[in-house]
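thought: fold this chain, then report.
action: predict
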Amino acid sequence: MPQIIVISRYIKPNSHKRFGNFIKYIATREGVEKPAQNRDLDREIFMNYLDNRPNSHGFFSETDEPIILEKTAKEVANHAGAIWTHIVSLRRNDSERMGYNTLDAWKNLVRRRIVDIAEAQKISQQNIRWYAAFHNNGNNPHVHIVVYSANLKEGFLTQKE
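observation:
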């Protein structure tokens, strides 16, 4: 039976002003898998790419739209509500056997299960905000997921959940 390791951290409201640095770290650290470049970039997106390199990091979310890391880091760091960070990890042999050894496999898994995460954290589906990055390194391929609610009154996670 595969061993799944899940670590969840709670960041209190108004105590994560430096959290933007953590966002940049998980999106760019060694071993992060980066999404493929969209070859059909229009001129505005291409110019923005030259300035901000949207795919020079490994963040993904609900769509395949480019994520501007600097903007995302500021958005998360300035969020006035609670934030959770989750790490979901498998042993290398389990990830290989189960097919969770690529960015696309983890991206599809997180996108399918984000509804369950929102429900467990008591966040309505329309208010959930999340970003994730897959790290395919060493003996434990894993995904970091940053989750919060656009509604500051939503969001709660018990030990059981």
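thought: worth noting. Residues 103-120 form the longest helix (18 residues).
final: tokens above.
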